[in-house]
Amino acid sequence: MTENVSRRGFLKAAASGTALLFLKGVEGAASLSEAMGSKTTTSGHKFFDEHQWATVEALTAQIVPTDKYPGAKEAGVVNYIDIALATIYSAQQEMYVLGIKGVDQSAKAMFKKDRFIDLQLEEQIALMKAMEQDKAPGQIWKELAASSFLYDCLLTHTFEGFYGDPQYGGNKDYVGWALVGFPGPSQPRGYAPPFARMTEE
Amino acid sequence: MGNKKVDVCIIGTGAAGGVMCKELSQAGFEVVALEVGPFFTPADFANDELGQSIRFFFLPDPEKFPNTLRTDPKEKAEPGFHVARNLGVGGSTLTYCALSWRYHESDFKVRSVDGTVPGASIEDWPFAYDELEPFYEKAEYEIGVSGLAYANPFDPPRKKPYPMPPLLPIGAGQMCIKGAKKLGYHPFPTPMAINTIWYDGRPPCVYCGFCGWYACMRAARGSTLNNVIPKALATGKCDIRPHCMVREITVDASGKAKAAIYVDPQGKEQALEAKLFVLCGGAIESARLLLLSKSGKYPQGLANSSGLVGKNMMYHIQAQAEGVFPWPVNAFKGPFSTVCVHDFYETDTKRGFIRGGTIEGSTYRGPITFQWRRPPDEPLWGQRHKDFSREYFAHWMALLLHGEDLPQESSTIDLDPDVKDKYGLPVARITHKYHENDYKAANYIGARAREIMGAAGATKTWGGELEELHGQSAHHMGTCRMGNDPKKSVLDKWCRAHDVPNLFVPDASCFVTSAGANPALTIQAIAFRTADYIIRSAKRLDL
């Protein structure tokens, strides 16, 4: 399997715990005001309009799908991202605005449907796989690397929203922690030995 | 409001600066310490991966404090996050993993033991292990290090045991013991600046699992914020000033350091005169400040008549082997490292490289960070990714290694010609390329780490190759190396600048070689030694 540059670079940064700052250095593309020209403020959300919200919800639902366990949708990952973009991650607003337009452009070029959210689930996956390889069609992706939007925004923030503390608006009812068996904050009690098993019982 | 002249001005309050604050104020000197970051309290700390560890609560904001990096001196350096260090009182000991090593005897004489290597600027340190030994002991007792003396057959000699028994092996430690013993290696409990009993008024560790990359909520881990700095403040002689950025050290007509010029929390420029200056900003920022302090007397920057300020910059080599087991290893319980292996620390010429390193322990930080821990053939999103997370979160572990990064004169810190920080000052530009020896060493030891996990029962292992992290590593050393010859070194054996008699730089800048293990305790032992020298020489230093 060939790893693309973004994945390699990202893994490196994530391994050393600097993923966020690594991507903070990613330059945005077109001017924010231009990209946000049509944005309405009547959605009731903190940052996204209804279409952006639905698109990001669909994208995150492909990153952590719903099976017999809850996925990104049930965890409220889009709510987490919406809050984060309106506050601490405001520097990445324009990447989302552009990226959402980008996936709609790719949906049109690849499947002749106007919006990403109109695609079949298999089509959504195919489109995101094309993004991963920077092969997704569309004008926007000349300004913003599709793989960068996928890794630096969508994957990064989906994992934060699904596996992070619920106080930030995601991981609703602790579904992310329950999925993997993470007990959450452990102070002041911590853990007592034995910490692990040495063999299979 | 003006500043009155004080005895000692300390710049930076991390591993070295904290020690200097305590030692010099307890000796009766009037000390002011200038710290660019905030003064955190325990209420600022939490078991919260997203809030504390991912959002880099303690790290410099790359927009306000960027650095630039390049691997080739012909290229333009790119701005970004290239230096992992904590800003705040306590410095990088706020969130460090707390491995507390005594460097081996050979580490102080690499040139004598291993000779020269093309492209590398290897020298002996200007003192031997024996000279530092009493200060390692002092550091272990003052900082609070737990460990088991004589358990590591490769350890240098010591006179006293550790002040506390070692941590219990966590899951990754148990696996490391099992695998390493099977392969005939010598695993031993990691010396850690983490309390295992009540010690020095601080409680023992409860294995909460939010350790390296987090500040300790209960002060069980020995940050200078909670071990030496409270004692410095208790003397009434030490004034620690957070949010103060020093931009220059000025000199008088005789060439002695005169005043630290700094930007105070209100953004106003201040001058602080002192009889003695102790620079403890870490290997990046200490070198940068010296280079920023150009004057008629020192046109190349302060203490830089040798031209070596900023040269020979070293990180450690780093690689990470990962694996999954059929049974739960529970990486989320306990501190970063409890068991280490030093069988690959010393030079073995049969391996095709010199020096070596330490296989040291897990690198777990939390379930968010875990999502990027995947074998190269596993996807990073989708159903299979979710399945892997669910199946292996509790069954995964890693063995990280740190090893010796050979010094190269071409690896440097200098002032970036274009990029400025939020104070309008040129940022430190890092030029660093790993040496061929570094790749061989990291990949060799990384492969052994994978074998250890395999022998312990891992069903799959991956990784273990050199990670070209450059500044994303938190270990930076060597930019003002010590030596006896003022033409070939910046500092003398007491960390005093050859050129400037009232300027000391007892942080990791002084390292001559990087050794194969985490630097914190050696930084602190050197700081204790330098403080001892300053106190003994007070009359000569006009204090």
Greatest chain-chain contact:
A-B, 62 and 72 residues
**Which quaternary structure do these chains form?**
heterodimer
- The amount of beta strand of chain B, in percent, is 15-25%
Largest sheet of chain A: none
Mean pLDDT of chain A: 84
Our measurement of the CA-to-CA distance between the termini of chain A, rounded to an integer number of angstroms, reads 36 Å
Large-scale geometry of chain A: globular
Number of helices of chain A: 10
Average per-residue pLDDT of chain B, rounded, comes to 96
CATH topology of chain B: FAD/NAD(P)-binding domain
Class derived from helix and strand content of chain A? mainly alpha
What's the count of strands of chain B? 17
CA-to-CA gap between the ends of chain B? 25 Å
Q: Report the count of strand segments of chain A.
A: 0
The run of helices and strands of chain A is HHHHHHHHHH
CATH superfamily of chain B: FAD/NAD(P)-binding domain
What structural category arises from helix and sheet content of chain B? alpha/beta
Describe the structure using short key phrases.
A: about 200 residues; mainly alpha; 10 helices; about 0% strand; B: alpha/beta; FAD/NAD(P)-binding domain; 4-stranded mixed sheet; 11 helices; about 20% helix
Structural commentary:
The complex is a heterodimer of chains A (201) and B (543). By secondary structure, chain A is mainly alpha-helical. Chain A has a domain at 45-180. In chain A, 52% of the residues lie in helices and 0% in strands. In chain A, helix 6 crosses helix 9 (146-163), helix 7 (93-111) crosses helix 8 (121-132) and helix 8 (121-132) packs across helix 9. The radius of gyration of chain A is 18 Å and the shape is globular. Chain B is an alpha/beta fold and 543 residues long. Chain B is built from 11 helices and 17 strands. In chain B, helix 1 (15-26) links the parallel strand 1 and strand 2. In chain B, helix 5 packs across helix 10. Chain B is globular. The relative contact order of chain B is 0.20. Chains A and B meet through helix 1, helix 2, helix 9 and helix 10 of A and helix 2, strand 4, helix 5, helix 8 and helix 9 of B.
